[in-house]
Design goal:
Layout (H helix, E strand, L loop, with lengths): L1 H20 L24 E5 L3 E8 L2 E8 L10 E6 L2 E9 L2 E5 L7 E11 L2 E11 L20 H12 L2 H23 L4 H13 L4 H4 L15 E2 L5 E2 L2 H7 L2 E4 L2 E16 L5 E4 L4 E4 L11 E2 L4 E7 L3 H30 L6 H23 L5 E4 L4 E6 L6 E2 L4 E6 L4 E7 L5 E9 L4 E9 L8 E7 L11 E18 L4 E2 L5 E8 L2 E6 L1 E4 L4 E6 L6 E5 L1 H4 L4
Antiparallel strand pairs: 1-2, 2-3, 3-6, 4-5, 4-7, 5-6, 7-8, 9-10, 10-28, 11-31, 12-21, 12-25, 13-20, 14-16, 14-19, 15-18, 16-17, 18-20, 21-24, 22-23, 22-25, 23-24, 25-30, 26-27, 27-28, 29-30
């Protein structure tokens, strides 16, 4: 009995061996020669294509084809376009869903295999035809379970592949099976001569029980079931990032092409905000004395004043020695006044014999002595008025009633809040020209105009002055900032927005290159400052590459 069926057992064994050795169908619809997909198996089947103006991504979602249309250069979503799709089911038209997304019903997407598509796009003045190949993976056998013979190979992933090949009428399968039967008949004849078919039977049974080398790893039927498709952003071991178009929409990713050019040299200088010298001023006391408030009190910080307004009074202070000297001068003047008065009285009685000129001289002398005496009495009590030299706003105030003010002490600082300058310090000899850009620590910027530079060092640096043309809100005198000024030097490189350059974990500067529709690759670059809005890339990336200009910081957080 066993000898009768030995050829069939041997043929089945050869069939198993042939199936093990023969190439299986391409996993998930990909060609054998293509590299494995870089994305997770949970990602929906997709294909992309691009032209000089457009970039398109087609995603299979069941029997529905979802298309994302963007501009190739900037990655902006394109709305209001007309899309016609030529595919296995004929010509269909995609309906717009907003935000550069278009949807079309495609029942043929339920059929596994590769589907060649030609998509005609009309967007304003643009007319392009994009071709792409969409690979649909083989449906999982988990939906049609095969009976399991007490743990035999039939319930494994290998058996499911065998059933799938039988349904497709795979020519390779029938060729291997036929060859197995022929070889089985030959082996049966050989063993029949030896009056025993036991070795053939044993060989067939061993192969039947063992199955393919991957049978153990395949596991049960449920292990081959395709997981739910979810388009999620993910980072790979090489650092590149897969970002679906839906996520790019949320992150507002924008790109631009790199271009090598020659740019004016730029120097980065530390600086601070100073008041405009022509519209600001200081209020100081000329003598030592005690501060007194004027009628209405001292002006407060932020108060607006006009030229000539009395801001404070200074009551001069007199020491003991000065007071004694003053008393002595008063007594001397009193004596001189008394003598001159008597002299004048005598001259007046003798008018007939005294010349009129002598009488007038005596009167003038008496008037001068009395005036000196009066001034001497008023000196200790006369207060000095401190007035505003310019119109503006009180920026600094050091006035307190009763405070002793020394000469040259700044009591008030008056500035014009609409007129500010910037003083930068250059530690090298730079020929600064034209306009500049000031960048504050909080990210705000201001346009600056070069006014002049000093010839003498200040703290081993040369002061350079700029006027502020478009003053941002909240700028105050003394505020620190960085000035990026153009020089006569020229430098070559790739100018990119500052938002494109990030700081990597190792401290190295990097940018993200948009290599294809949904792939971004970090590139380490060497940079130099260019101006307030741009950075110069001198090495690390070539011209003509697409780099991210907006959303790079969000991309860098994807793990």
């Amino acid at each position: 009995m066993v000898d009768r069926f030995a050829p069939f057992f041997a043929g089945f064994a050869v069939l198993l061996i042939g199936l093990i050795a023969s190439p299986l169908s391409a996993h998930e619809g990909h060609d054998h020669g293509a590299p494995p997909p870089p994305v997770s198996t949970t990602i929906a089947p997709r294909a992309d294509a691009s032209t000089a103006d457009l970039e398109l991504v087609a995603v299979a979602r069941g029997e529905r084809l979802e298309i994302f249309l963007d501009s190739f250069k900037g990655n902006e979503a394109i709305d209001g376009a007309s899309l016609e799709i030529d595919g296995p089911g004929g010509t269909i038209k995609a309906e717009p869903k907003g935000d550069g997304t278009y949807v079309a019903a495609a029942p043929w997407l339920s059929q596994p295999g590769t589907h060649d598509l030609a998509i005609t796009v009309i967007a304003g003045d643009l007319f392009d035809v994009l071709t792409l190949t969409l690979a649909i993976p083989q449906a999982s056998a988990g939906s049609a379970p095969v009976a399991n013979w007490d743990g035999l190979l039939i319930g494994t992933a290998w058996a499911q592949e065998l059933g799938s090949r039988l349904q497709r009428q795979d020519v390779t399968l029938w060729a291997v099976g036929g060859a197995g039967v022929v070889i089985g008949l030959v082996l049966s004849a050989v063993f029949r001569r030896r009056k025993s078919a036991t070795p053939a039977v044993l060989a067939a049974m061993i192969l039947f029980w063992a199955g393919s080398p991957d049978a153990e790893a395949a596991g049960s039927i449920g292990a081959t079931t395709r997981p739910n498709e979810r388009d999620i952003a993910q980072r790979f071991a090489d650092g590149s990032i897969f970002v679906p178009k839906t996520t790019q929409r949320i992150l507002a990713i924008r790109t631009t092409f790199t271009e090598h050019a020659t740019h004016p040299g730029t120097v980065e200088l530390p600086a601070r905000v100073i008041p405009d010298p022509s519209t600001s001023g200081y209020v100081q006391a000329s003598v030592s004395g005690r501060l007194l408030p004027p009628p209405g009190g001292f002006p407060q910080l932020g108060a607006r004043v006009s030229v000539g307004d009395v801001l404070a009074l200074v009551q001069p202070s007199i020491g003991a020695a000065d007071f004694t000297s003053q008393q002595q001068q008063a007594h001397e003047l009193d004596q001189e006044i008394m003598l001159v008065e008597r002299k004048l009285q005598r001259f007046e009685r003798l008018q007939s014999v005294v010349a009129r000129g002598e009488i007038e001289d005596a009167r003038l002398e008496l008037q001068g002595l009395r005036a000196r005496r009066a001034n001497l009495e008023q000196a200790p009590t006369a207060a000095e008025k401190l007035t505003a030299p310019v119109s503006g706003v009180i920026a600094a105030a050091q006035a307190v009633a009763g405070q002793i003010a020394e000469p040259n002490t700044v009591i008030f600082q008056i500035v014009d809040p609409s007129r500010y300058w910037v003083e930068a310090l250059s530690f090298e000899a730079h020929s600064v020209v034209g306009t500049a850009r000031g960048k504050f620590r909080d990210g705000r910027t201001a346009s600056l105009t070069y006014r002049g530079s000093g010839l003498a060092d200040r703290n081993q640096a040369i002061p350079i002055h700029f006027s502020v043309e478009d003053k941002p809100e909240g700028v105050r005198a003394g505020q620190l900032l960085t000035v990026l000024s153009s020089t006569t030097d020229e430098r070559a490189g790739i100018a990119v927005p500052r938002t494109s350059v990030l700081r990597g974990s190792n401290g190295q500067s990097l940018v993200y290159e948009h290599t294809n529709a949904e792939r971004f690759v970090p590139r380490e670059v060497r940079t130099e400052p260019l101006d307030g809005d741009r950075i110069l890339i001198v090495s690390g990336i070539e011209p003509g590459k697409r780099i991210v200009t907006q959303g790079a910081e969000l991309l860098n957080q994807i793990r």
